[in-house]
Amino acid sequence: MLKSATLITADALRSPLSHLKPQRPAASASPLLEAEVANLGYIVLRGRAGDATFMAGVAAVLGAPLPTAPRSMQRSAAGVVMWQSPDEWWLVCPRSQRDALVAQLQAAVKDCFAQVADNSGGFTALHIHGAQHSRLLAHLSPYDFDRLAVGQCVSTVVSKASFTVIRGDVSGVTLVFRRSFADYIWQLISRTGGPYGLQFVELAHCPGSLLQPLLDKGSAPLAAAA
C-alpha cells in the first residue's frame, strides 16, 4: 500500500537556497553580507510602449506608469517594476498578490497586442550589502556596477549565468536570477567573496533590500526536507 505524501503547493514554494545555514553576523568594521530574498511574485509584462491603451491599462493596475528609459525601475503600490527591454518589464510583487495582479493585468490588456505571464516559480533573489559589494561583483561580471545609479537595474552575466541587478541604495544591490542557477551563482559569489569576509545571513541582518518590504509575513524559506 502506498503511503500518503505531503504535497507542497505553489504557495509553499521551497527556496532554492533553503539548504544553506545563515550565519550570525560577525563583528566587522566593514561587513559584507548576503541574504536570499525568497518566494516573491514575478510577473512578466510584454507590450508596446507606444500603445497608449496598453500603457494606460497597466498603469491603472499598478498605480504608476511603466518605466520606459533603459535600466530604469519604478516603485508602485503593486511592487517594483523593472525595465528589461523596449517591450518587456518585470513586476516583482508580494506572492500573496500575484494571482490577483495577473488577472487584473490580463483584463487590462486583453484588447492589446500584449502578454502577461506569471514566472514566480522561475526566479529568486539575493541581496548583497556592504562597502565592498561592487568590488566583489567586479570579479564576476564585466559590467561596471559603480556606474549603476540608485533606482536603476541592469541585466548582465556572471560566468555562464545571467541575472538582473537592482540598486536600491549606495550600500548594496539585489540580484534576481533563475532558480535553476541559484546554487551555481551562490557558490560563485561566496567563493569570490571569501577574501572580503562575505557572510551569508538572515535577511533581517542584511539591510537595504528594495524587495524586502514585498515579502509576505511567514514567507521565510521552507527548511529542507528531512
Largest sheet: 6 strands, mixed
- The tally of strands reads 11
Q: Indicate the proportion of strand residues.
A: 25-35%
Please give the share of residues in helix: 10-25%
Which whole number gives the mean pLDDT?
88
Broad shape: globular
H/E series = EEHEEEHEEHEEEHE
**Individual helix count:** 4
N/C terminus separation: 22 Å
Task: Give the strand line-up of the largest sheet.
Answer: 8-9-10-7-1-11
The helix-and-strand class reads alpha+beta
The whole-angstrom Rg is 18 Å
Q: Which segments are poorly predicted (pLDDT under 50) over 5 or more consecutive residues?
A: 1-11, 220-226
Question: If you had to describe this structure to a student in words, what would you say it looks like?
Answer:
The relative contact order is 0.23. Residues 1-11 and 220-226 have low confidence and may be disordered. The protein has helices at residues 52-62, 98-108, 133-138, 182-193; strands at 33-37, 41-46, 73-75, 80-85, 88-93, 115-118, 123-129, 152-158, 161-169, 172-178, 199-200. Strand 4 (80-85) and strand 5 form a beta hairpin. The two termini are 22 Å apart. With 226 residues, the protein is α+β, with helices and mostly antiparallel strands. It is 18% helix and 27% strand.
Summarize the structure.
With 226 residues, this protein is an alpha+beta fold. The protein contains four helices and eleven strands.
Protein topology:
Blueprint: E1 33-37, E2 41-46, H1 52-62, E3 73-75, E4 80-85, E5 88-93, H2 98-108, E6 115-118, E7 123-129, H3 133-138, E8 152-158, E9 161-169, E10 172-178, H4 182-193, E11 199-200
Parallel strand pairs: 1-11
Antiparallel strand pairs: 1-7, 2-5, 2-6, 3-4, 4-5, 7-10, 8-9, 9-10
